[in-house]
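> example.struct
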């Protein structure tokens, strides 16, 4: 069972709750992170969250995970999912299992959102379940 889970949020996710609620819902990032910490604690695990609008900061945080006791990563790389070879390489380099999460169903959206640089290396991909997608990924991590 994963004891320490790192949750990474990519660009614009700090605007959840107000950003295009018809697509992303009304939950805030604080709501999602709070729920994840609660579920992790109920299972005797810890959950740390990090959000950045900057690709390099996300890469740095993935690299830091290799030495901080992280057992599992949940990542919503947002737009970087479709563009960042650097983030995909960092996730491969640290060799920590991860699940890719998307609030919206990216396959019902623009074609460019259908490709993920992260998915081929992920344990799984959760898309279209809103904030619950993070919880589903967390519950998977806790059972791994």
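> example.seq
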């Amino acid at each position: 069972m994963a004891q320490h889970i790192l949750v990474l949020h990519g660009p614009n996710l700090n605007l959840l709750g107000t950003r295009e609620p018809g697509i992303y819902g009304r939950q805030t990032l604080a709501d999602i992170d709070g729920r994840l910490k609660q579920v992790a604690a109920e299972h005797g695990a810890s959950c740390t969250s990090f959000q950045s609008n900057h690709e390099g900061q996300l890469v740095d945080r993935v690299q830091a995970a290799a030495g901080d006791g992280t057992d599992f990563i949940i990542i919503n790389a947002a737009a970087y999912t479709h563009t960042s070879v650097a983030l995909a390489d960092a996730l491969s380099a640290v060799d920590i299992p991860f699940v890719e999460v998307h609030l919206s169903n990216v396959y019902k959206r623009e074609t460019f959102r259908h490709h993920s640089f992260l998915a081929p290396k992920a344990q799984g991909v959760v898309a279209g379940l809103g904030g619950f997608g993070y919880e589903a990924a967390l519950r998977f991590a806790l059972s791994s």
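> remarks
The radius of gyration is 14 Å.
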